[in-house]
Amino acid sequence: MSDASQVDVAIVGAGAAGLAAARELSNRGTSFVLLEASHRIGGRGYTEEILPGQPFDLGCHWMHSASLNPFVKIADEFGFTYTKGSYPKGGHWDGSWISEDDISEIDTYFEQQFNSMAKIIASGKDCSVFEASDREHKWTSLFDYIASLNSSSDVDQVSIADVLAYNDTDENWPVKQGFGELICRYGADIPVSLNSAVKSIDWSGKGVKLETAKCTIHAKHALITVSTGILAANDIRFTPELPPWKQEAISALSLGNHNRICLAFSEDAFGSDASEGFTTNAIDGEPMSFQIKPFGLNQVEAVTGGRFADWLERAGQQASIDYVEKKLQAVFGSDITKRVVARIVTAWRGDPWVKGAYSSAQPGKAHQRKELAKSIDDKLFFAGEATSSDAYATAHGAYLSGISAAQAMTQVYKEVQ
Ligand SMILES: Cc1cc2nc3c(=O)[nH]c(=O)nc-3n(C[C@H](O)[C@H](O)[C@H](O)COP(=O)(O)OP(=O)(O)OC[C@H]3O[C@@H](n4cnc5c(N)ncnc54)[C@H](O)[C@@H]3O)c2cc1C
Question: What are the chain's domains?
Answer without folding.
Answer: 5-41+190-254+359-415 (3.50.50.60), 87-169+258-345 (3.90.660.10)
